[in-house]
Amino acid sequence: MADTDILTTLKILIIGESGVGKSSLMLRFTDDVFDPGLSATIGVDFKVKVLTVDGNRAKLAIWDTAGSERFRTLTPSYYRGAQGAILVYDVTNRTSFQKLDLWLNELETYSTKSNIVKMLVGNKIDKEARVVTREEGVKYARKHSMLFIEASAKTRDGVQCAFEELVEKIIQTPGLWETDQRSELRLSDGAPTQQGGQCGGYCVI
Amino acid sequence: MNFKTMHLSPSFIEIEYIIILLLLTMEKETCQKQKVSEGKACEETDIGRIPDMLKETLTSSKNESTVMCQKCPSIILKPGLASTTNIEQFLPFMYQETASTTPDGETVKQFWCVDDIYSFENVGFSSTVGQIKYLTCADCEIGPIGWHDLLTKKSYIAPNRVKL
What we know:
CATH superfamily of the largest domain in chain B: Metal Binding Protein, Guanine Nucleotide Exchange Factor, Chain A
Radius of gyration of chain A: 16 Å
Oligomer: heterodimer
Order of helices and strands of chain B: HHHEEEEEEEE
Number of strands of chain B: 8
Strand order of the largest sheet of chain A: 2-3-1-4-5-6
Low-confidence stretches of chain A: 30-40, 189-205
Largest sheet of chain A: 6 strands, mixed
Keywords (chain B): Guanine-nucleotide releasing factor, Protein transport, Transport
Strand content of chain B: 25-35%
Largest sheet of chain B: 6 strands, antiparallel
Strand content of chain A: 15-25%
Order of helices and strands of chain A: EHEEHEHHEHEH
Shape of chain B: globular
Pfam families (chain A): Ras
Number of helices of chain B: 3
Distance between the termini of chain A: 34 Å
Structural class of chain B: alpha+beta
InterPro entries (chain A): P-loop_NTPase (IPR027417), Rab (IPR050227), Sigma_54_int_dom_ATP-bd_1 (IPR025662), Small_GTP-bd (IPR005225), Small_GTPase (IPR001806)
Number of helices of chain A: 6
Low-confidence stretches of chain B: 1-8, 31-48
Keywords (chain A): GTP-binding, Nucleotide-binding, Protein transport, Transport
Protein name (chain A): Ras-related protein Rab-18-B-like
CATH class of the largest domain in chain B: Mainly Beta
Helix content of chain B: 25-40%
Radius of gyration of chain B: 19 Å
């Protein structure tokens, strides 16, 4: 019954500058409701979510920075043990794109797993005042061996896909995760085996 | 407690004991199955703690049905993973007067208790408030639907704030 079919539990981080839409993205990743007036009096710290990828059910602990990134107070424990990280920037805000280097640096400093899978998300593509082109995003992601996706929390665009892609990549990375007891990995039609762990290159959805 | 004594002179109370023991054994089996599959401790299975167990069995039970969000179709917890627990905790109401600055609330006295946060299917944890985190629906973020004790790592769901 219950959890017998859970393949693994994964820690996923969502990082990036304030106001890029991390929280609404987290909400969006996990449901169909978007509340534009969302103003939680107490922010959500993390969520436990079930996600099915290629017939494998993974339980995700998704961590949002809950605004503390504003004060640069993310502690090493926030990064500890994470198998995946979603770096978010706002396509209408160039500074948020430029600050990615900083976040990437911090991620590499504190993450305890060298082969952590990273995904770059260009958010708010539903807005008209875009200043960061898709090509720039692709290029940056390729340079840093990250998956890449553009998304909008207001539409379904890419959001679910982003999580699925990330989890799929983690599952394909040997040594990055551990199976919960007795669960067996179900490989979809000849899923490629990752060599050396590092997510090889970029991927545009 | 001794089976033999009970069989020799069965009174009403003792028959009740036997039934409870049988139920406990059944529950233990279920729990052990869960233990194997989830690698998770099952508190009520220690046969050496019969008096406590008896008390617990008489006062607590597992959630028989799936625990869901009241507002959206999100599944919070699968059946059999939480036990009723008597514990008091003040929770702000899920719906507040927008003008109100201090949240109104109620003291909830009985909860579904979950030992391991990964037992949940989907659930959200608020930022820390004192020694606790509030639980929310992971999807629509309505809450608090319960609370999480940072010291004991146990989570408590308020039955009247979810759909069974």
